[in-house]
Specification:
The complex is a heterotrimer of chains A (244), B (243) and C (276).
Chain A lengths: L16 E5 L7 E7 L2 E11 L12 E7 L7 H14 L12 E10 L4 H16 L6 E10 L5 E3 L3 H5 L1 E11 L1 E2 L7 H5 L5 E8 L3 H38 L1
Parallel strand pairs in A: 4-5
Antiparallel strand pairs in A: 1-2, 2-3, 3-5, 6-7, 6-8, 8-10
Chain B lengths: L13 E2 L3 E3 L1 H5 L9 E2 L3 E3 L5 E3 L3 E6 L4 E5 L12 E9 L3 E5 L6 E8 L15 E10 L2 E7 L11 E2 L4 E4 L2 H7 L5 H9 L2 E5 L4 E6 L2 H13 L5 H14 L1
Parallel strand pairs in B: 3-7, 10-12
Antiparallel strand pairs in B: 1-6, 2-5, 4-5, 6-7, 8-9, 8-11, 9-10, 11-12, 11-13, 14-16, 15-16
Helix pairs in contact in B: 3-5
Chain C lengths: L7 H13 L14 E5 L5 E6 L2 E12 L10 E5 L17 H15 L10 E3 L3 E13 L4 H15 L1 E2 L2 E4 L2 E4 L8 E2 L7 E8 L4 E4 L3 H6 L2 E7 L5 E5 L8 H32 L1
Parallel strand pairs in C: 4-6
Antiparallel strand pairs in C: 1-2, 2-3, 3-6, 5-6, 7-10, 8-9, 11-12, 11-13, 13-14
Helix pairs in contact in C: 2-3
The chains are: A alpha+beta (244), B alpha+beta (243), C alpha+beta (276).
Pfam families (chain B): KH_6, Rrp40_N, RRP40_S1
GO molecular function (chain B): RNA binding
Protein name (chain B): Ribosomal RNA-processing protein 40
Amino acid sequence: MSRLDRTRTSAHQLRPFFSSQNLLNRADGSAQFDFGESSVMCSVIGPAEVKLRDEKLDKATLEVVVRPLVGLPGIKDKAREQAIRETLEPLVLSGLHPRTGIQIVVQTMKDDGSILATAFNATILALLDAGIPLKSILGAVTCIVDSETNQILLDPTTQELANAKSTHTFVFDNKSSITSSPENKDQEEAVEVATLYSDSTGLFSEEEYFECAQICYKAVQAVHGFIRTAVQKKLEKEQQQIHS
Amino acid sequence: MASITTEEESKLLIVLPGDQLPESGLMEDSSAAHRLTLGPGLAPMDDDSITAVKAGILKHNAVGNRWWVESNQRRYVAAQGESIIGVVTGKSAEHYKVDIGASQPALLGVLAFEGATKRNKPNHNIGDLLYCRVSMANKDMEAELECMNPTTGKADGYGELKGGFVIKISLGLARRLLDPKNLVLRLLGQHIPFEMAVGTNGKVWVNSASAQHTILICNAIRNSEYLNSAECGAMVKSLVEKM
Amino acid sequence: MRDADPSTNEREFLLAALKDGARIDGRKFYDFRTLRLTFGAEYGAVEVQLGNTRVLAKVSCEVIRPYTDKPTEGFLMFNTELSPMASAAFEVGRQTDEEVLVSRLIEKAMRRSRALDTEGLCIVAGEKVWSIRVDIHFLDHDGNLVDAACIAAITALLHFRRPDVTVVGEDVTIHTLEQRNPVPLSIHHIPICTTFAFFNNGERMIVDPTFLEEQVKEGDMTVTLNVHKEVCALSKAGGIPMEIDQILQCTKIAVVKVAEITAQIQAALEADAKKR
């Protein structure tokens, strides 16, 4: 079956990824992440000075600002700010930088659906670029249940979202162990994966929810892999003078 | 997913936050001395595992079984013993307040200079550029600086940087500039005589006979970050030829 | 969080270099930094890079009811809130003086110079008109936000296409992009801002100052012109006093710059149109 954006052939296919790190000159870290024609830019400043009233004695204060592409920030953007902040709070090792502030600004650059998932992925890349200490990385994907076909479509476009019976966004972390020898490969299978964030709207059954979670979990592996490759490429470029 | 290889570090081992290091791999090299020293980018987690907390290259030094992650960032976090370049932003009877690019300004005692006494101490103004050493750094307190070598009490090159220009680069590039074998500096040195001070906080001070030369050196340093050896050579060559 | 002031060394080096005839980034006094325009897949979205300064402009439209005293006039609105992404000195929900100046200048350059034909936005007099909204997002601040924002805004307006409408009596049909080709806005002229910064008691002037140059400058002036050599706006908010001759000289330099930038915008638009 061909998808509404006509570039994809399968319901469980993600749009092409694109990412770029360290593109802003004033921020301490920045990244852009694209799912096809959806694009989000994220900047990170910190650990930096923090306003006295926001100062926490034992840890860094996380501030997330979400800016929409069109119009002034509204309720939806505030909700996204909260979602991103509360998902990141347990992930950031804020105890290492007490009495400082980490400011994250998320700006939609192009909107073609799945913006929240795109924003999560841009944010993690920007945090990695800024060198903020983290417990783990994360990856995010959105899927919908189509109202006509009841089919689960991954990474929906704006057009596909309009036909959604329910929409689900999942964020998973990625703790993995590096095996010391190839024989220990089974250990890798036992990698624990935690759901960091799950948001569902619309009418759906328990069965549908868990199926969506399964499909998104599989898809997030590709996102994690992509993030790893992106970071790897950047590091190799930095190190090429030393190791050549 | 990467795996630790016992062979030579032919390939860079890149880790991301959340990557756990297996205990067996960590102890391999010094099984006799069951000691382990963790450097930046690695931290023990609640479940006793040792996990990377920054994206970077996993490094190991068999002496003392040290493990750390070589990463790059732009924001400075003060660490004891590092040499940095700061700007005086305020002064009181006992301290200068110095902006070192970290989350808070650092304190520099007015007597922390070579031969300074209560009667005779150097006078610095707001806006002055100082090359200092971090004498105390703690996550809960403001960093403290000094402009002398603590063991000898001599200036050792620390102090005010007069004239010249200063640029901000990434901390990773600053560390690479401190390597005596650094390519871009060697290439520049073949064409232009210049003076420089590199702060591990990503500030680089450059001074030369003319403004044009200083500008060229600053640009060459900035450009060198993502170039390989050949490209770096070509870049310096084209800059020098354009002069 | 305020921006840190530059050190005395930076300040003095910059001034000494300017006296010697050099700028820190190797530019000549009257050169703009490299301008890059990138369009999105949608109409009316453009990202402008002027050196390290980065601005995104996005145009959108909706149908609304006009004011009763101007029943045939459409609306043109600008949103120029400074994002903390560009600089930590910009706080959310707190307008800085810089923000007020930037938004006033863009308003003057774009709206009050009547660059856009607002009468052409009328669908049914007194009932329905188009309201065009330009959201300007500042992503990275390395000086001269005004010129970059102005280029972004006008390029996005030129690139934008609104849905076609058919009016039959009282019935208004708005066609989707699939049904009918969308129509461009009617734009009278292309106003371009050129910002000058002054040093050394106003004797030395430069075009397109970087952030460091802005921090050290003694005064500035923005001249808004179009290719027809018409002055659309002129703004000099404080700074050192200037001779009349100097203002004329600035305008003459701006004429050349405006022609260059306009040509670049048009070339970029044509290249993008070919791709579609």
